[in-house]
Amino acid sequence: MLSFAFSAVAAAVIFFRLHLSFVAFTRSQCLLLLFIHFDLWLARLSSFHFHFRLQFTAYFHSLVHFHIVIAIIIAIEHHTLI
């Protein structure tokens, strides 16, 4: 539960700071937000008492979602740099 609270506060601070400074996301900020997003998924997953098979399925879908979003951001950044 503490990990969930820390991640939520960290995400709010990053969004607020970016909103105030009107700065575009850098790769490191995108990856940090994605790691926070993934941590929130894991915190949500661990807070429920699913059957082991359902837990593994939810974890697998979260992992796939996490890597797809990272791949999209890196592809967009690579396209804008060319």
From TrEMBL:
Q: Which organism is it from?
A: Gymnopilus junonius (Spectacular rustgill mushroom)
Lineage, uppermost ranks: Eukaryota, Fungi, Dikarya, Basidiomycota, Agaricomycotina
- Membrane-traversing stretches: 6-25, 32-52, 58-76
| The keyword Transmembrane helix is annotated on this UniProt entry | yes
Protein name, as recorded: Uncharacterized protein
**UniProt keyword annotations, A-Z:** Membrane, Transmembrane, Transmembrane helix
